[in-house]
Design a protein that fits this description.
The chain has 6 helices and 10 strands; from the N terminus they run E-H-E-E-H-E-H-E-H-H-E-E-E-E-H-E. The protein is an alpha/beta fold and 206 residues long. The protein is globular, with a radius of gyration of 16 Å.
């Protein structure tokens, strides 16, 4: 069986680093991107780090070409002020993948988009308005991309050791639960190597 290749956009992000480690442990070939590749630890001969800005289609094309799956591995920024970080990265990734014929794309969003808590839900949406709007745009962009896509909504990531018992499901009512970063990375790699299916927006919990 041919070795599978995973493209990881944002290997200098803590989540991106975790995705790279998980993919290498599984014996995958990894093409990772970072604005400053020297800041990404060279963990294995199977890891190649390319210089790329996450918002640049031209930069991303060499990384996603020939990839069996692409992970947009940027930690969701839950901020009040307007931001376009996730939006710009999603646009660049989609355009790059279309240009080279790559199909499978997995991204990360936040459970706060579907927080139904009567008290904390509205408060979090006000506090994190800019970041949540950015993540909502990411989800809409992927939905209209024509690619084989999946979005994992997750709670706040932590540095705690992973449980290795992460659950991915269609229920979106999980508020602001925390999730070990390792567990989210494991779920992202699982999804990137599998064919997408409905529903396309899923929640991952520990």
């Amino acid at each position: 069986m041919a070795q599978q290749t995973l493209a990881v956009i944002g290997a200098d992000d803590p989540l991106g680093e975790a995705v790279v480690r998980e993919a290498l442990v599984r014996g995958l070939r990894v093409l990772a991107t970072a604005p400053l590749p020297r800041r990404v630890p060279r963990l294995s001969p199977e890891l190649e780090v390319l210089r790329a800005e996450s918002g640049s289609q031209e930069d991303l094309e060499p990384a996603v070409r020939g990839a069996d799956g692409v992970v947009l591995a940027l930690t969701p920024q839950l901020v009040h002020d307007a931001t376009m970080l996730a939006t710009d990265a999603a646009i660049a990734a989609v355009r790059a993948m279309r240009a080279v014929g790559a199909q499978r794309l997995v991204g990360v969003s936040s459970t706060q988009l579907s927080d139904s808590s009567r008290l904390w839900g509205p408060l979090r949406r006000r506090l994190h308005h800019g970041g949540l709007q950015d993540l909502r745009r990411l989800e809409r962009l992927l939905a209209g991309s024509g690619l084989d896509w999946t979005v994992l909504r997750a709670g706040r990531t932590t540095d705690l050791l992973g449980t290795r018992e992460q659950v991915v499901g269609s229920s979106l009512e999980h508020g602001d639960r925390t999730l070990p970063r390792e567990d989210l990375a494991r779920a992202l790699v699982d999804q990137a190597l599998a064919e997408g299916r409905e529903p396309r927006i899923l929640t991952v919990t520990a």
